[in-house]
Amino acid sequence: MQKCAVAATGAALALGLTACGGDGDARDPRAALTAAGQKVAEQNSYKTEQLTKDADGEKRDEHAFSRKPDLASTKSWGPGHGTEASIEMVSTEKTVFNRSPRRSGERWLRIDREGPLPGKKFPGPREAQGELPNWLAALGASKGVTEVGEETVRGKPATHFKGTVVLDELEDDKGDALRDSLRDTHENFVLPRRVSGFHQVDIDIWIGRDGLPLKGRESGKGSKGASDTTEEYTDYGVDPKIQVPSVKDSTDIGDLPTGEPDEEDTTG
Q1: Which end of the chain is more exposed for a tag (fewer CB within 10 A), N or C?
Q2: Is the pLDDT of residue 201 over 90?
Q3: What pTM did the predictor assign?
Q4: Mean pLDDT, rounded, for 197-211
Q5: Average pLDDT, whole number, for the chain?
Q6: Under a CB-based contact definition with an 8 Å cutoff, are residues 70 and 125 in contact?
Q7: What is the dihedral of CA 178, 169, 164, 42, to 10 degrees?
Q8: What pLDDT is recorded for position 121?
Q9: Between vectors from CA 14 to CA 10 and to CA 20, what angle results, nearest 5°?
Q10: Which helix (H) or strand (E) holds 156?
Q11: Are 29 and 165 in contact (CB under 8 A)?
């Protein structure tokens, strides 16, 4: 995504375009979105509040991450859990800490990324960025993306972009928008939606005057029913102050009687 975003940023500059400024100047939505994608990729950190509504109910997540140092944290509130987080996760470059307060209280389960579960993909900074990188890449490559107009998000002016992303068209696009990011887009955006029976989704993104997104939304209807996910973004470049659990407050997964964790304890 970063490579294609750089190319799009160059195109935007050449045409005198900006992601969100201009006071009525004509803007190319695709260039504006890929320019925003590049600007997001340059941020060392940001926080995401995510709300998903689907056939299973409502799920809320709070994500924070930093690229350097390589840290991420997630708190999840699943359906029926009320105000108590159902899953908490902290990850470093080498270790994932996970706990389910209702099941394990204050104690963390410690998992070495290179340890006894080879091949298992654990969440990290990429996942803690929320859907924003996926949405910017997918909507920026959509043929039908349009600029809706100027709106307000949390009291801040923002430009609203929207479009329908057709999965087949997204993967058929061999132009600059996807050439260098096709594999990442397929793995993180297209494949999960195909699994849920989606053929297309609607995406909205609101970009602030500084060129950084303030809000995003994806909605659609798949074989498992309708789904709606909204994210809000804050604290770009601000140290998220992620606290890594100490070894004494955790149990290594290899020390568990079975050597294999409960699914809830590792993936949320």
Answers
A1: C
A2: yes
A3: 0.81
A4: 97
A5: 82
A6: yes
A7: -10
A8: 59
A9: 80
A10: strand 156-166
A11: no
23 or 205, which is more confident? 205
Q: Looking up tokens 């104690």, which residue turns up? A: 107
Residue 144 CA to chain centroid, in angstroms? 22
Question: Which tokens go with 57?
Answer: 């109910």
Return the DSSP state at 267: H
Residue type present at position 21: G
Distance CA 129, CA 134 (A): 10
Q: What is the distance between the alpha carbons of residues 200 and 249, in angstroms, rounded to a whole number?
A: 44
CA–CA separation, 6 and 213 (whole Å)? 17
Which helix (H) or strand (E) element contains residue 153? strand 146-153
Q: How far apart are the first and last CA of the chain?
A: 27
List the structure tokens of 85: 């987080």
Q: Among residues of the chain, what percentage have pLDDT more than 90?
A: 59
Kindly report, residue by residue over 89-114, the tens digit of the pLDDT: 999 999 999 998 777 667 899 998 87
Written in H, E and C, the secondary structure of 21-82 is CCCCCCCCHHHHHHHHHHHHHCCCEEEEEEEEEECCEEEEEEEEEECCCCEEEEEEECCCCC
Is the backbone peptide bond immediately before 69 cis, with ω within 30 degrees of 0?
Answer: yes
Contacts of 252 (CB under 8 A, 6+ apart): 110, 111, 112
Give 92-142 as a DSSP string: -SSEEEEE-HHHHTTPEEEEETTSSSTT-----HHHHTTTHHHHHHHHHH-
Strands in 213-222's sheet, in edge-to-edge order, are 146-153, 156-166, 200-208, 213-222, 225-234, 45-54, 57-66, 71-77, 87-91, 95-99, 108-112, 250-252
